[in-house]
Amino acid sequence: MNLLLVRLRSRIRRPIRNLLASRHFAASVAEFQRLLPKEVRPQKLWDLTRTYRGRGWFRDLSAWQVESEYCQLVEFVAQQRPRVILEIGTAKGGTLLAWSRIAIELVISIDMFGGIGGGGYPKAKEKLFRQFAIDRPGVEIVPLRLDSHSLETRERVEETLAQRTIDFLFIDGDHTYAGVKRDFEIWSELVTPGGHVAFHDILRAPEGSECEVDRFWAELKQKYPRNFEFVENPRKAWDGVGVLQMPSHPLPKN
Predict the structure, then answer these.
(1) Does the reported pTM lie above 0.85?
(2) Which pairing describes strands 227-230 and 166-171: parallel, antiparallel, or unpaired?
(3) Residue 162 vs residues 6, 95, 105, 136, 166: alpha-carbon distances, Å
(4) How big is the chain by its Cα radius of gyration, in Å?
(5) What pLDDT is stored for residue 1 in this prediction?
(6) Rounded average pLDDT over 55-77
(7) pLDDT for residue 238
(8) What is the number of helices (H) and of strands (E) in the chain?
(9) Domains, the chain
(10) Three-state SS at 227
């Protein structure tokens, strides 16, 4: 379906979804609560992203990772018991769901609607995202439909952090070389010493793609020796998750 037809269909559906938003939200929350596992089990969370069927604005909670890589990453992050998690790239909410079940205090998720890579989500969906930790008193979910490359966005996040640091940072937004580098430069400064930063799509993309996360990841591995990867198939284009540990002390400047 070409872009013109997609936009036309969206314009037709929008008023209908707005009219039925309250009813769709109630039905979607009920579906979510029915599927939500009581404990943090990566496979159960993955299954939820695949079996959940919401309504209207709330219809999809899929994750854009490979199943095994998603589960391994979620298991690792859960073992770290992070107080604060920040992710770049909310998309459908599949990883936000996992972080919301893991973080002890705060989860911030940033995505710009209509940004590079087709990310973003309708504003109405924020209500559903805030339900992810409704049964976890003291855990705050903060979805931000903003530009992760903007210093104004960083100021907004720092206000929310209130002197706290980020224990786990997940970068899955702009996949261009300049874009992923910008995200790392802006947000890694707020990561707890010894905390972790993860990147999605570290495998080489198909020829002609603007995705160059693999190039930036190769550079980071030389600078940050404490790193590892979750890769199901090294020969596959796209996918793969790379994780690095930030040093306990600042690295010397070149």
Answers:
(1) yes
(2) unpaired
(3) 41, 24, 12, 20, 11
(4) 18
(5) 46
(6) 96
(7) 86
(8) 9, 7
(9) 3-245 (3.40.50.150)
(10) strand
